[in-house]
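Homework help board

Subject: predicted structure for assignment chain

Our instructor gave us this sequence and asked us to write out the predicted structure in C-alpha cell form, then describe one feature. I got the C-alpha cells but I'm not sure how to describe them. Can anyone check?
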Amino acid sequence: MRSNISHLTATVSLCVALAVSACAQSGRSSRTITSGVLGLGFLRAHQSFSSSHTSAPIAATSNVHNFTTADFPGASGSLVFDRSIATGIVLGIFVYGTGGTNSFTQKGSRYASLTVPGANATEAVGINSTGQIVGGYLDASNVEHGFLDTAGTFSNIDVPGATSTIAAEINNNGDVVGDFDDALGGHGFLDIAGNFTTLDFPGATFTEGLGINLSDQVVGDYSDSSGHSHGYLYVGGTYTPIDFPLASDTLAIGINDSGAISGAFTDAGGVQHGFTYAGGRFDQIDVPGANGTLITRIKNQGQLAGAYTDALTESHGIIAPR
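My C-alpha cell output:
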C-alpha cells in the first residue's frame, strides 16, 4: 500500500513522468500531492533520478513537433499536464526552489495560480472542453481528496471507503478517472455521474487511472510483481496492456476521442522518452537536446502537452502545436 502523504518529493512524479523506472525501483511506495499526483513529483524527483543516469542527451526522432514552452514566471520548474483547446486554457504545475508544488492556468500570455480554498497543497491535472478542472489537494489535516473546479466552484471527489483520492482527468460528459487508496492498496477508479467503478489490472500490485476520452475509454498504469510499470487501456471491463517496444517501463497517460494514446517510457539505457500510440503504431517523441521528454496528453487534433528536462536538469512545460 502506498504512503500518500509521507513522500512530498517522490514517486508518482516520475511514474507519470520521466523516471518511469525510478517508480519501479521504489516499488511505487507513494503517489502524493505536492510532488506526486500522477507523476507530478517530476519537478523535483526527476533531478535525483537524472543524476543517477549519465546517458547523453537524447536526439530528435523523425517524428518532429514544433514545441512551445509554457513555464510559470519565476518558477524553478514547470510541467504542462493538460490543455483545453476550446477554451485556450493550459493547465500545469510549478515549483519555486525546494517549496511545494503549485498549480497554474495559462491563457495567451497570462498566467494565474490555482488553489483549492483552504488546501495545504493543490495539483490540478485535468481539464475538459468546457473548462472544468480536476485534480487533488491536501486538506488542513493533510488528508488527500480529489476535486472538481467548475467556474471557480469547488467540490470534492472522494471514492467511498477510500483513505485518499485523486482525480486525474475529466471528459466532456463530466466523467472522471483517477486513483485511490484503501486498506487493500492502490486502485484506479472511473466515476460516471457519481457511480464509481474500481480499476484493478489483473495480477497487478497497483493500478491507477490517468486519462479518459468521450467514450469512457481509460488509460493508466499498473505495477507488476517485479515492480515494473506498464501502461494499459480499459474498455468496457476489458484491460489491454500497452508497452512501448523494448522499454523497461511504460506509462499511458492520455487518450483522445479517436483512441490515440500519449505517455512516457524508459529505454534499456535508462533514458526517458515521450510517445504516442495510434492505429497500432508507436511514435517516439523527444524534445531536441533534452535529457528526457514526457507527453501527458494528446488532444483530438493531435495537439500535445507535457514537459522536458534540459541539460541543467530544469523542467519546462511544453505544448505542440498551438
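Reply (TA_rk): Your C-alpha cells look well-formed. For the description, you could write something like this. The CA atoms of residues 14 and 42 lie 5 Å apart. That's the kind of observation they're looking for.
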